[in-house]
Every structure is written in C-alpha cells, then in structure tokens.
Specification:
Elements: H1 3-24, E1 31-33, E2 39-41, H2 43-58, E3 64-66, E4 77-85, H3 87-91, E5 98-105, E6 108-116, E7 121-126, E8 131-133, E9 136-137, E10 150-153, H4 163-174, E11 179-181, H5 186-194, E12 200-204, H6 208-220, E13 224-226, E14 239-243, H7 248-255
Parallel strand pairs: 3-4, 10-11, 10-12
Antiparallel strand pairs: 1-2, 4-5, 5-6, 6-7, 7-8, 8-9, 12-14, 13-14
C-alpha cells in the first residue's frame, strides 16, 4: 500500500475544505444546536462535501465516515473525517479551528492530515514515514520536568452535567505544570504536541474524527499516546493522553484518577 499517496490525498482534501472555511469565516453563520453547547454551522456539512469530492475522485472505492454527512461502518479501509474541528470557535469568529482527514484500517490510523486555515499550517503523517508541518519534519518537545511543561486540554460537551470529573483533573494539573491552554480544537492540540509547541494533551469524551489524524502525528513525531489508564489508544476510545513521552507517566498519575464513565 502506498501510504504516501493516501497522505497526499488527505492533504489535498484538508486544504480544499480549509480554504473554503477561511473564506467563509467572517460571514454571518446559520447556527444550530446538536446539544446544549454543541454547535453546528452551515459551513460544517459544506466543508465535508468538499472533502468527499476529493476522496471520491482520488479513492473512489473507499468509504468515508464523517461527522456531518458521510456514514459507514468503521471496518477495513476507510476515511475518517472531521470537516470543522472547533465549530464553536468558528461560529464566534475565533481563529482556532481545523480540518482533519485520516485513513483508517479498522481502528488503526495509517495516514492523515490536519490543516489550520488561519495560519496556513498543514500537518501530515503516514505510518512509519514521520510527520511534517508544511513539508518540514517535526518532533515532539524534549521537556522532562512537569513544572516546565505547557499542556493543552478540552472540556466535553456534557461538562454542565458533570463538571467535577473534568475540573478535578484540571485542578491537579494546574498547580503542577507551567501552564494549560484550552483553545477548543483537539485535532490542533494534538498537532501542537507533535511539533513541540505543547508538551502534552489530555481530554475525555472525544469522537474518533477528533483525534485520528492527530494521534498519528504525535506517534510519528516521537511522542506517546494512550488512554487515561496508560493502555493502548484508538480513536474509538473515550479518553486520550498524548505527550512527548518524557512526561507521560506524570500525566497518567493524574488522569488515571479521573477516567470518565
């Protein structure tokens, strides 16, 4: 299998959707609610359709599982797509959102790309071939001391219902690391771990399209990804910890006490 080919297809699809999203960012949006604080705009399904056009042209025999439009069973080879990660940010005009496209085999990520349109940054990776940012190789950070670490996290959409489980972990990290950022797009948080801007990331209750491409980026950049207990991670699990590997044990000491139900 030519994973380099699939990587390039993922890049092309992410770039096409990202260009559309950036063009529409400053325009008024039609906003709907999938949940109390879970938004969707008119741009989400439109961006997914642009991705589908690329994927169906380049890989017509592969099914697609997407957040908004495309649906298939997660078996065999298929694409896993998030056309707009960070919809709430996008709806408010906050420029922290991305497009994530990943090639899957069952629950394993083989290739993928994440694009951040406002900064025109394209992250991509293929299994065994390393990770890049705009074509240049990237590596995770070398931070070893938690007090020097900059972490990222996110809050699930049900946080209003069960805030203590999430805030408990946040409190424990907050007093033991240099800083925490909560910007609201898990795919970009993972990409930033991969390129060394963040030293680690944790979040519960994500969807598979949120993390698939980002997990591969971190692993191919020399980092480590597990669930909250330190067990092997797949995008279909409910909790993720990603790091440069050097502070992973420290992070698990905290997350293992806050495994979501």
């Amino acid at each position: 299998m030519d994973l380099g080919f699939f990587r390039r297809v993922a890049e092309e699809a992410a770039l096409r959707a990202g260009a559309f999203l950036q063009q529409q960012l400053s325009r008024p949006h039609h906003i709907q609610h999938k949940g109390k604080i879970d938004l969707v705009t008119e741009a989400d399904p439109q961006a997914e359709r642009l991705i589908l056009e690329v994927l169906r042209e380049k890989t017509p025999n592969l099914p697609v599982l997407g957040e908004e439009v495309a649906r298939t069973e997660p078996r065999g080879l298929y694409w896993l797509v998030d056309p707009l990660d960070g919809t709430t940010n996008y709806a408010h005009g906050f420029p922290w959102f991305g497009v994530s496209v990943a090639l899957m085999k069952d629950e394993e990520v083989l290739a993928g790309a994440i694009y951040h349109p406002p900064l025109q940054e394209l992250f991509s990776a293929a299994r065994g071939q390393g990770a890049t940012l705009n074509g240049n190789p990237i590596r995770v950070s070398s931070t070893e001391i938690p007090e020097e670490a900059l972490l990222a996290t996110g809050f699930p959409y049900n946080i209003h219902e069960e805030p203590e489980q999430v805030l408990g972990a946040f409190r424990e990290f907050l007093v033991r690391v240099q800083g925490i950022r909560r910007a609201g797009a898990a795919s970009l948080d993972l990409a930033y771990v991969a390129c060394g801007r963040f030293d680690g990331f944790w979040e519960p209750l994500l969807k598979p399209w949120d993390t698939a491409a980002g997990v591969l980026l971190v692993e191919e950049a020399g980092g480590k990804v597990t669930n909250y207990r330190g067990e092997p991670y797949s995008p279909f699990q409910k909790h993720v910890v990603a790091s440069n590997g050097r502070i992973h044990s420290f992070m698990l000491q905290i997350t293992s006490g806050y495994v979501p139900r």
